[in-house]
Amino acid sequence: MAGYNEFIDGDVLDGPDVMQFLMRQVRARFADASARNAALPTPEEGQEAYLLDVDHVTRYDGSAWKVIESPWTSFPPAWSNVTLGTSPTSSGEYRYVGGDLRVKALLVLGTGGALTGTAQLTLPNSETSRTGLRSKGVASFTDSSSPGADEEGVAIALSASTTIYFEQSGDVVDATDPFTWAAGDALFADITVAL
């Protein structure tokens, strides 16, 4: 286990000092996860590595490498209980921040589109929210037949969940709440999910 030592001018570092106080405490850079895993076959808990191919900072948690920082990355949102319709808009992006996952998603229903039940969005990368914590973010809902009458709400990821659902004024967002969903209606969410 790496510790801490304060060296002074003139100290000579031997091999064990270099390994214990320098190598195990630096954030090493690797071309990709395969190169990291080959160079660090038995990482220590808390050890960090930067992956050049995806611009990710990873940290070993004692059993696996976890992404703790990343740039924004686009993903195709997977919606449940939603009929997208013809020519919908469905876009999303995510990034890791401090080991948590920030997700932004936009849905605009196309012709013939509708919500068929409680609207849900699957977290990208097969992530699961942290057990014991409920994450909340912001959401907005636009009824295209009432311009300027946007409804504000919340995006919620329950404990140990792989999906986000939405509420407005305490009611879940579904086929008729906060309005009857149809072509041109929109849902936007921005949430940071504790992992």
Word description of this protein:
The protein has 195 residues and is mainly β. The protein contains 2 helices and 14 strands. The strands form 2 sheets. Strands 5, 6, 7, 8, 9, 10, 11, 12, 13 and 14 form a 10-stranded antiparallel beta sheet that branches. A 4-stranded mixed beta sheet has the order 1-2-3-4. The longest helix has 8 residues, at 15-22. The mean pLDDT is 93.
Outline:
The chain has 195 residues and is mainly beta. It is built from 2 helices and 14 strands.
What is the topological layout?
Blueprint: H1 15-22, E1 28-30, H2 33-39, E2 48-51, E3 56-60, E4 65-69, E5 73-75, E6 79-83, E7 89-97, E8 100-108, E9 114-122, E10 135-142, E11 151-157, E12 163-168, E13 171-172, E14 186-193
Main beta-sheet annotation: 10 strands, antiparallel
Output the structural class.
Answer: mainly beta
Residue share in helices?
Answer: under 10%
DSSP strand tally: 14
Q: Summarize model confidence as the mean pLDDT.
A: 93
What proportion of the residues form beta strands (DSSP E)?
35-45%
Task: Kindly provide the radius of gyration, computed on alpha-carbon positions and rounded to a whole number of angstroms.
Answer: 22 Å
Low-confidence stretches: none
Tell me the number of helical segments per DSSP (H or I, 4 or more residues long): 2
SSE succession: HEHEEEEEEEEEEEEE
How would you describe this structure in keywords?
195 residues, mainly beta, four-stranded mixed beta sheet, 2 helices, 8% helix
